[in-house]
Amino acid sequence: MPQASVLVLNGNYEPLNVCTLRRAVSLVMLGKAEPLVFRSEALSTVSGPMPAPSVVRLHQTVRRPIPMLRLSRHSVLARDRYTCQYCGSKGSDLTIDHVVPKRRGGQDTWDNLVACCRRCNLMKGDKTPQQARMNLLRQPSRPHYVPYISLPQYLRARREPEWSPFLPRFDAFEEDLVPA
After folding, report:
1. What's the fold here for domain 73-124?
2. pLDDT confidence of 180, banded at 50, 70, 90?
3. What percent helix, strand, coil does the chain show, rounded to 5?
4. 111/36 Cα distance (integer angstroms)
């Protein structure tokens, strides 16, 4: 359980970060945070068992600028739900494909990058999807929200039932959060 993650909330209850259990216990012991939700398992300490926090809230509100949703490989994969946008296969062996290849003027933008498996990426090569006779499952676009934590962290956090009340809902991803 020492590898467990803890949701850290700002003083105003907005999600700020996800940290390790060790860091969260340190914040609580130093008086910088208060635990809001505890795990069912307790931590073993020298002085006896201690409830392990699952969600902590900082005592002071940390001022932070409005977050910008950065275009990155991880953000594109998270937006596309770790699914190849040509064949629909899921997995960890995904690459990023330019819908309009760079050589043909394609840019590194939200509208031109998609998650793609290696097989489809090789089949498509340096062609447009129409030239390669491949169809996109979903047209790529910039996400319409800006989570305070990174998009991959947000998607992992939404799978934690005890964290759900503290995280904003983005309907575009709710269908993927239903347990199989």
Report:
1. DNA Binding (I), subunit A (1.10.30)
2. very low
3. 25, 25, 50
4. 40
How many other C-beta atoms can be found within 10 angstroms of the C-beta atom of residue 7? 25
CB contact at 8 A, 82 and 114: no
Longest dimension (CA), the chain: 68
* Ramachandran assignment for 24, one of left (phi > 0), alpha (psi -120 to 50 degrees), beta (any other): alpha
List the domain boundaries for the chain. 5-65+149-177, 73-124
Buried b or exposed e, range 32-71, using 16+ CB within 10 angstroms: ebebbbebeeebeeeeeeeebbbbbbbeeeeeeeeeebee
Q: pLDDT tens digits, residue range 37-72? A: 999 888 888 888 989 999 999 999 988 777 677 899
What is the sign of the dihedral through the CA atoms of 75, 80, 86 and 91? positive
Tokens describing residue 149: 């934590």
As a whole number of angstroms, the distance between CA 29 and CA 26 comes to 5
